[in-house]
Amino acid sequence: MNSLVQRSVQIILSNQAESGAYIASPNFPTYHYCWLRDGSFIAYSMDLVGEHQSALAFFHWIDRAIQKYAWKVDRLLEKQNKKEQLLESDFLHTRYTLSGDEAEGEWLNFQLDGYGTWLWALSEHVQRTNEISLLEDFASSIKKTVQYLLAFWDYPNYDCWEENPYHLHPYTLAAIYSGLASAQKIANISDKINFVGPSSDVLLRIRQFTIDHGVKNGHLVKSFLPLGKETQKEIPVASDGVDSSLLGVALPYRMFKPSDPLMRDTVARVESDLHRSHGGVYRYLADTYYGGGEWLLLAAWLGWFYAETGDMQRAVGLQQWIEAQADQPGHLPEQVSNHLLSPSYYEMWEKRWGPVANPLLWSHAMYLILHDVIRQNSQTNKISVSWSGR
After folding, report:
1. Measured distance CA(305)–CA(299) in Å, rounded
2. DSSP state of 336
3. Mean pLDDT value of segment 99-108
4. Residue of 47, 63, 124, 334 marked catalytic
5. pLDDT of 253
6. 162 catalytic, yes or no?
7. Pick from 90, 103, 171, 381: most CB atoms within 10 A?
8. Residue 67: is it exposed, middle or buried by C-beta count within 10 angstroms (0-12/13-18/19+)?
9. Does the active-site annotation cover 131?
10. What percent of the chain has pLDDT over 90?
11. Catalytic residue among 51, 159, 287, 294, which?
12. Which helix (H) or strand (E) holds 61?
């Protein structure tokens, strides 16, 4: 185990609260919360390195949070049935305090990807550890999450960057797809939870909806704008640009296989627009957050795709680039700012919230995921790899 792998594990474990929540970044006050999305990827990385109790503690934290606010889902479904107006405050939050309470103050709430992602991560945990009894323990939260996703999967909501609330996002749709597919697996694994999983028809509908409205010029797009339920067949694509989060549509959500031509063309566009040669990966071309730097977790995500598709040279190249960004204590930041897309915005964000988040636990988690997939694929293929460049 190399030193940064060990350090990443230490940083994640030392920043897991007694409640089981993972703080997003301990040195960045704005991120002193736990997001379901970040936390689920972190829990998955802990399972990969054998820290199963850490992942389990996180799932118990989610279970308690969802149980605490299950009444909101019941009220939402009632309002939906009565065709009453749904307010953003009605929906489940996307982030919680470390104790599992809804965070106070202004923040963006209605965001669905984390609820699909926790079901995926739980399913992966159960398959890896064979702790099938967990499904009975968490049955109520699983059912409530599935109800929530089935009812609102095609509603516009914030993307994974907490932006674009009036749009739909292929990344989010894929997270929902994966969560519901995972719930289907869960229903088949245990006959003790009295739970009928979502039908395959729903999964096909979500997938086809994404193809029909989230594709332009042969690739997935960052987001698309609905005109309303009554004109869904006329939904136009809001932009033909890509977002690096689209990597998640294949890995880990597998709404499309990495080898699918649609994913290949999407990743090719991510490479051409957002991967800086011999460097990191940007979120999207119009990014202004902290000037729009290169995100370490996205570099790991692209490396994950390369490793899964057999391009080990480029996977290792991105791993090495990430390792070069670690500071002396072994912290990996959210992004690096040497080659900004929008440099005039950096000072504004630094004055507002301080320096870039460092460490970011999600960065460490994605590094661990990339390291693991490279290790596994290298062992399977019995090859040694070195970087020859992009």
Report:
1. 10
2. E
3. 82
4. 334
5. 98
6. yes
7. 171
8. middle
9. no
10. 84
11. 159
12. helix 52-68
- The pLDDT of residue 106 is 67
What backbone torsions phi and psi does residue 149 show, to the nearest 5 degrees? -70, -40
Lowest mean pLDDT of 43-47, 183-187, 249-253, 276-280, name the range: 183-187
- Predicted pLDDT at 329: 95
Domains defined along the chain, listed by start:
104-274 (1.50.10.10), 277-390 (no CATH)
The CA distance from 297 to 311, in Å, is: 18
Which phi and psi angles does 303 have, rounded to 5°? -60, -35
Say which of 162, 260, 308, 311 is annotated catalytic. 162
Q: Are 193 and 142 in contact (CB under 8 A)?
A: yes
Calculate Rg over the CA atoms of the chain.
20
Whether residue 166 contacts residue 222, with contact meaning beta carbons closer than 8 Å, is answered with: no
Within 10 A of 311 (CB to CB), how many other CB atoms are there?
14
- pLDDT tens digits along 149-194: 999 999 999 999 999 999 999 999 999 999 999 999 988 886 666 6
Q: Give how far Cα 69 sits from Cα of 63, 80, 91, 109, 333, Å.
A: 10, 17, 10, 13, 32
pLDDT category of residue 228 using cuts at 50, 70 and 90 = low
Tell me the residue length of the chain: 390
Contacts of 26 (CB under 8 A, 6+ apart): 15, 32, 359
DSSP H helices in 237-360? 261-274, 296-308, 312-324, 346-353
